[in-house]
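Posting for a labmate who doesn't have an account.
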Amino acid sequence: MTATRVLYLLASAAPPVLGIGGVIEQAKARGWDVCLGLTPTAAHWLDDQLPALEALTGHPVRSRYKLPGEPDVWPRADVGVVSPATFNTINQWALGITDKFVVGFAAEAIGKGIPLITMPCVNAAYVQHAQFPHSIAALRGMGVTVLYGEGGFVPNEPGQGRPDAYPWHLALDAAASAAASVGGGGDPGRARTPPVGG
């Protein structure tokens, strides 16, 4: 299948990120041209896989903002998926704390009208923190599709997570729906929002 849509897959350091190569393969099979962005910790976890991931996507894996004047190395995004999204990533994004490239892209993309999907990966202890439900509500209020709770990620008890059971397919399904709703889901001639270089 020829990829005509560009998916920014932006991942933070939760255990499901260790299987991100398989997710990229699934996305490519669905017709996506995938660009992978990682938080610094996620990039550290995947350090030995980065060359293979770059070969798989055909794009540099990004974990830092580009320097002023540097060219964009990714094509323009059709859809962004922030997943797995840790407690820290969700809260920073909702609060507009953009020291990380992944969060900075996601924050700016809201204003640029790029469809965004996020699926948290947090345990049941973290979600008791008072800020977390406010952050989920804030992101939803900004138009982000948040796959959390029924029909999305359901928190596990601390120490009982199963990375292999993380429902990646829900994020990819939501990305496909978002692409279809904003202009045919794959017309390579349609206008796209310029990339966020940071």
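Reply:
Got it, the structure tokens are right above this. The radius of gyration is 16 Å.
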